[in-house]
Design goal:
By secondary structure, the protein is α/β, with parallel strands linked by helices. The protein has one domain (about 5-75, about 110-315): Rossmann fold (3-Layer(aba) Sandwich). About 55% of the residues lie in helices and about 15% in strands. It has ten helices and eight strands. The protein has helices spanning about 20-30, 45-50, 75-90, 95-110, 115-125, 145-180, 185-205, 220-235, 260-275, 295-315; strands at about 5-10, 35-40, 60-65, 65-70, 135-140, 210-220, 240-250, 285. Strand 3 (about 60-65) and strand 4 (about 65-70) form a beta hairpin. The longest helix is centred in the middle third of the chain and has 36 residues, at about 145-180. About 35% of the residues are buried. Bound molecules: adenosine-5'-diphosphate and magnesium ion.
Length: about 325
């Protein structure tokens, strides 16, 4: 089954229905008896709009077997910097510590700091927190942000490799001068090495199709189709395969109104384009509802169509 994997990510353009699909999948899994964690990595969270207050960066139990976690990038950055400072206290002499801490605080305000902290928490969810759940479902931010998050484990891994090599060269040089063959104890090397290992575990977990399913959500319109194509190609460049698509907000067929008949005609063209462009991917079509999907009750209204469409997609 397309959505029957331990780890799922719902990606796609803003407003196409990522949160809706992630919440539907989580609800279906929890109702089917599986302990489920629904995680939002979108700084503009809206799981709270569906499930009630869930902020604070910790998992909240919202119903039987269903926990919801909104990762807060600001809080994660603070936590991450505190951890770095904690490590430094063990590594840096007290005369340098104040200056070193000042540098860390500056780095915390640099571009990319919140992304790194978000990555750190995602790694923690995947490698540590996941043991408590049968399923972990990620509701993500719009495409660009999520592509960076998903490809960061391999990019950062390569970067840490470079640091490790320099550190090793430094030890070799020192051993050469001192004539001591053995590598000295080096807590920095240990830390970098541990970090490298966790990034590699995360990278291979994301690339393992038996564990992780990357699902693109789109609506049958030109721009979301184009963005989905680019997103799938970019992930493929990083060795990450997309498992399938959800095409959301498909209009009802029967309509006599000429305006809606014209919209429906266009939609058919876009659906045909999706068919042709993503022929190799399983696809779930979800109907457009008359109202918003802004509560658990509304999710429940959409749930049977979702489960039915998934069964069809998986049987194809
Ligand atoms: N099938 C649907 N029918 C009607 N409204 C929908 C449907 N799917 C999503 N919506 C509405 O569209 C808006 C965007 O959906 P959302 O899941 O928040 O998108 P994203 O997380 O991709 O930004 C929300 O107001 C939601 O209620
Ligand atoms: Mg969303």
């Amino acid at each position: 089954m397309l959505l029957d994997r331990p780890v799922l990510f719902f990606a796609g353009k803003g407003g196409v229905g990522k949160t809706t699909c992630a919440a539907l999948t989580a609800l279906a899994a929890a109702r089917a008896g599986e302990r489920t964690l629904l995680v939002s990595t979108d700084p503009a969270h809206n799981l709270g709009d569906l499930f009630g207050p869930v902020a604070g960066g910790v998992a909240h139990e919202v119903s039987a077997r269903l926990d919801v976690l909104e990762i807060d990038p600001v809080a994660e950055t603070r936590r991450y910097l505190d951890e770095v400072k904690g490590n430094m206290r063990r590594l840096v002499s007290s005369t340098l510590l104040a200056e070193a801490e000042r540098q860390v605080d500056l780095a915390g305000r640099a571009p990319g700091a919140e992304e790194s902290a978000l990555l750190e928490r995602m790694v923690g969810v995947l490698l540590d927190e996941r043991v408590r759940y049968r399923r972990v479902i990620f509701d993500t931010a719009p495409t660009g942000h999520t592509l960076r998050l998903l490809t960061m484990p391999s990019l950062m891994g390569a970067w840490v490799d470079g640091l490790l090599r320099r550190r090793a060269a430094h030890h070799d040089a020192r051993a050469g001068w001192l004539g001591a063959p053995e590598v000295p104890e080096d807590p920095v090397f240990e830390l970098l090495h541990r970090r490298r290992l966790r990034l590699e575990q995360t990278r291979s977990l994301l690339a393992d199709r038996a564990v992780t399913g990357l699902v693109f959500v789109l609506v049958p319109e030109a721009l979301p189709i184009a963005e989905t194509r680019r997103g799938i190609d970019e992930l493929a460049d990083h060795g990450l395969a997309v498992a399938g698509l959800v095409v959301n907000r498909v209009m009802p067929t029967a309509t006599s109104d000429p305006f809606y008949a014209e919209r429906k005609r266009r939609e058919r063209e876009y659906l045909a384009r999706i068919d042709a462009m993503f022929a190799d991917l399983p696809r779930i079509d979800l109907p457009l509802l008359a109202g918003d999907v802004d509560s658990v009750a509304a999710l429940e209204q959409l749930l049977p169509a979702f489960i039915e469409a998934e069964a069809q997609a998986s049987a194809r």
